[in-house]
Amino acid sequence: MKDSSALYAFNKFGDTVLRAAYAMTGSYYEAEDITQEVFLTLHVKPQSFDTDEHMKAWLLRSAINRCKNYRKSARILRNSPLDEALENTLSCEFTPRDSEIRERIEKLPEKYAAVIFLYYYEEYTIKEIAALTGKNENTVSSLLQRGRKKLKTELEEEDLMYETR
Known about the structure:
By secondary structure, this protein is mainly alpha-helical. The chain has eight helices and no strands. The protein has helices at about 5-25, 30-45, 50-70, 80-85, 95-105, 110-120, 125-135, 135-155. The longest helix has 21 residues, at about 50-70.
């Protein structure tokens, strides 16, 4: 591998970590803080990675863990993610429909939000998600199915579903 420095990791995967944190917290400001913590940890305690994919997996796992801690904290009760979502965008462009779906994903229980984000936004396979989260592949598959079902139900209730083609 070329270089495992925090700067290299940030340049290569900073946006990915930020998007993951934002998808899980619903707060751009918290996502920035979590992203900073992840890369600061890597800088202070350098890790050895075999490949860039290994580095990316470690960074996402660190971000997911920090997001879990954030969701458990009292700070989440004092934030207004909806206002922040309207005024902030990430490096990739989202349509208004994407924002509505992301908002719904953020409101899902963390166990569903994490696997849906990793599967659809980061395009990890179920096997890779299982390795990242330390869960059994069957568990990840079940969480993905239940998360989809819950998300679909909520979207239908809100009349946000696209017309089926």
